[in-house]
Design brief:
The chain is α+β, with helices and mostly antiparallel strands. Helices cover 18% and strands 44% of the residues. The radius of gyration is 28 Å and the shape is elongated.
């Protein structure tokens, strides 16, 4: 009788041990894939083909990849690049550079209308086809943009959707603050350089 009890106890312990190992195995499944979030910095290396001033502090930069036989265009805010000024950037043209950049989808605001009239003086024929639009209350346009960097304005629709846009605010937009408007925008991929330095091939 005691032998039977002993065997039952051993079986119970072994069964719990196996179940515990099985649960532990299920919980410790390793993640084989790293998810790279949009906006994470990517590193590259190429020839700085051109750097054009597109309104200080922004530059439009073209980088060529001779081995791959193509080039790519980026935006660059020179005030955000450590130890780089316009003179240094111009001196790197034609040379190899290493850089980091981000790539993200942005909402590019192209027009704001109120009662069918453009507040930016844009004619309907000047807008590209296939734009998206949002109708709602304009906010963030309390003051005219005075600096070199765009302000952040929002359009909040009745269904509780809110979109933000980086934009240079005009007096017309200030007058429309807090009123109903229609914003026409395009979703674009923005590739922005966040660091750059001279490099040797």
């Amino acid at each position: 009788m005691n032998l039977q009890l002993l065997l039952l106890s051993i079986s119970f312990v072994l069964l719990n041990s196996c179940n515990g190992q099985e649960k532990q195995t299920q919980e410790q499944v390793p993640a084989e894939k790293q998810v790279i979030n949009e906006g994470d910095a990517l590193r590259e290396f190429g020839v700085l083909k051109s750097a054009e001033d597109s309104g200080y502090p922004f530059y439009t930069v073209e980088i060529e990849f001779p081995e791959r036989k193509f080039s790519e265009v980026f935006t660059l805010n020179i005030e955000e690049i450590p130890d780089v000024d316009p003179g240094i950037l111009a001196g790197w043209v034609g040379q190899y550079v290493s850089y980091e950049y981000t790539s993200e989808v942005i909402n590019a605001l192209l027009d704001v209308r109120q009662n069918g009239k453009s507040l930016l003086g844009v004619k309907p024929s000047e807008l590209p086809k296939g734009l998206q639009k949002i109708s709602g209350t304009l906010s963030g346009a309390t003051n005219v943009t005075e600096g070199d960097l765009p302000s952040l304005l929002r359009i909040h629709d009745p269904e509780d959707q809110s979109l933000e846009f980086e934009f240079f605010i005009t007096p017309e937009l200030v007058e429309a603050e807090g009123t109903l408007v229609v914003g026409f925008y395009d979703q674009r991929t923005e590739t922005k350089i966040i660091s750059m330095k001279s490099a040797k091939k």
